[in-house]
């Protein structure tokens, strides 16, 4: 089973000393951490941290570690468990800060949205929501623990966007400059990349962040897959999909990253590279020549339904592709139903599409959906998110959205850092037992 747990912003486990949170000595109500613990009713020995007027228990830490281990399919080596524990605690501290801030601004997440997100997690593991919840129960994980994590992951971006979207300005010049650079490099290689992002919140500690990045690379050398490291330790939004950036065109990355991926062979992992206020670690999974100029390429939202569900039910499910937000490249927002799989296919040429389906795709334009085709025991349909007539470049809208999301994410990281500085956070390391295998 695979859970796509969203790593909290800045959750690089050993890059920051948890006891180094710069905190007030009392809450806004004037309570000390001991008074908060006494009021909570939780035994002092079971408190892992106090975050303003809330406590994080050692039970919470163990629950989060179990979720991480399931997400990693047990591929985290035992020697990394102390680091995993540290990350789990830091993740929970940041989660509490986010919960308190979203509560203050009355950001609510309907339970149906949490259910939708859990349904997506289940679908990506080819199981139903009920099977997912039963699996949690069998492994000793509280359903509420996962629901709280998902709820916070939905609410926090909504708060950041609601408060700061007016500060984000993506100019036409910025989009055009990026597109022009990509046009110039259109006949050069494309790279299939994955990323781990390590935000450098305090420039004076840059060397510590760099060393932390090297420790992550060392874990990969010992056999921990890059995708697992990204899921658990990256602060980028791609952490949810194992750091997968998809195919990136030459010139699309900042120059310092672009140079590195051009020079390294397939299968390489870069050292931490300083870029835009963070250290970036990139994995070069594959390289390919650019799309031949003049050959159309498509960005498709594809869905396939098992023929056993029947033609009418399959067609009804596949009709939802247009409104399921697959084109955003993010998690599905509308459940297509059990037995229906989906994919986001970026910049594929007709030659890369099964010849049986090419006639149904080649004449479509942006916003068109193909007919439903039955073949090989499945019903198939594809929706054209975008179409490029020659260079394989993303649309202006898609590129603007990428730049916007990157800028908003940077603001969100700073927002959280500001909350940390203004808050009382008391880490009680003496209550944390060394994790065992």
Give a quick rundown of the structure.
Keywords: Chaperone, Isomerase, Periplasm, Rotamase, Signal. The protein is built from 13 helices and 11 strands.
Task: Give keywords.
437 residues; alpha+beta; Triger factor/SurA peptide-binding fold; Chitinase A, domain 3; 3 domains; four-stranded antiparallel β-sheet; 17% strand; signal; Parvulin-like PPIase; periplasm; peptidyl-prolyl cis-trans isomerase activity; rotamase
- The order of strands across the largest sheet is 4-3-6-5
Low-confidence stretches: 1-23
Oligomer: single chain
Distance between the termini: 20 Å
As for the CATH topology of the largest domain, it is Triger factor/SurA peptide-binding fold
* The number of domains: 3
User: How many strands, which pairing sense, and closed or not: the largest β-sheet?
Assistant: 4 strands, antiparallel
Question: How would you describe this structure to a colleague?
Answer:
With 437 residues, this protein is α+β, with helices and mostly antiparallel strands. The chain folds into three domains: 18-165 and 416-425, Porin chaperone SurA, peptide-binding domain (Triger factor/SurA peptide-binding fold, Orthogonal Bundle), CATH 1.10.4030; 187-290, Chitinase A, domain 3 (Roll), CATH 3.10.50; 297-388, Roll (Chitinase A, domain 3). The chain contains 13 helices and eleven strands. The strands form three sheets. A four-stranded antiparallel sheet has the order 4-3-6-5. Helix 4 packs across helix 6, helix 6 crosses helix 13 (396-422) and helix 7 (172-184) crosses helix 13. Residues 1-23 have low confidence and may be disordered. GO terms for molecular function: peptidyl-prolyl cis-trans isomerase activity. It comes from Hyphococcus flavus. Keywords: Chaperone, Isomerase, Periplasm, Rotamase, Signal. It holds the Pfam family SurA_N.
């Amino acid at each position: 089973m695979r859970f796509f747990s969203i790593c909290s912003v800045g959750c690089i486990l050993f890059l920051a000393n948890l006891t180094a949170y710069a905190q007030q000595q009392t809450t806004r109500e004037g309570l000390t951490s001991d008074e908060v613990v006494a009021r909570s009713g939780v035994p002092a020995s079971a408190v892992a941290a106090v975050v303003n007027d809330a406590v994080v228990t050692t039970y919470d830490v163990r629950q989060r570690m179990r979720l991480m281990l399931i997400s990693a399919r047990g591929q985290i080596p035992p020697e990394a468990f102390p680091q995993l524990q540290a990350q789990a605690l830091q993740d929970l501290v940041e989660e509490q800060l986010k919960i308190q801030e979203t509560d203050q601004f009355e950001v609510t997440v309907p339970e149906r949205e949490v259910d939708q997100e859990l349904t997506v997690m289940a679908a990506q593991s080819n199981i139903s929501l009920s099977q997912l919840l039963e699996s949690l129960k069998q492994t000793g994980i509280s359903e509420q623990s996962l629901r709280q994590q998902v709820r916070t992951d939905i609410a926090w971006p909504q708060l950041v966007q609601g408060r700061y979207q007016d500060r984000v300005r993506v100019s036409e010049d910025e989009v055009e400059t990026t597109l022009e650079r990509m046009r110039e490099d259109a006949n050069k290689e494309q790279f299939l990349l994955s990323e781990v992002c390590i935000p450098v919140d305090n420039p004076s500690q840059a060397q510590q962040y760099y060393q932390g990045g090297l420790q992550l690379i060392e874990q990969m050398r010992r056999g921990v897959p890059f995708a697992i490291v990204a899921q658990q330790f990256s602060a980028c939004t791609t952490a949810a999909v194992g750091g997968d950036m998809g195919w990136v065109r030459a010139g699309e990355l900042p120059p310092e990253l672009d140079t590195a991926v051009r020079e390294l062979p397939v299968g390489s992992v870069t050292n931490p590279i300083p870029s835009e206020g963070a250290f970036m670690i990139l994995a070069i999974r594959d390289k390919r020549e650019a799309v031949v100029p003049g050959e159309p390429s498509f960005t498709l939202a594809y869905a396939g339904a098992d023929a056993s569900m029947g033609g009418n039910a399959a067609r009804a499910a596949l009709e939802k592709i247009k409104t399921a937000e697959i084109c955003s490249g993010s998690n599905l927002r509308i459940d297509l139903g059990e037995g229906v799989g989906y994919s986001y296919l970026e910049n594929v040429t007709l030659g890369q599409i099964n010849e049986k389906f090419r006639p149904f795709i080649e004449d479509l334009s942006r916003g068109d959906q193909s007919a439903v085709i039955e073949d090989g025991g499945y019903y198939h349909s594809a929706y054209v998110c975008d179409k490029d007539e020659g260079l394989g470049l993303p649309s202006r809208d898609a590129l603007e959205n990428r730049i916007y999301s990157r800028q908003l994410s940077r603001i969100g990281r700073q927002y959280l850092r500001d909350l940390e500085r203004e808050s009382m956070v008391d880490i009680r390391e003496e209550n944390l037992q060394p994790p065992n295998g």
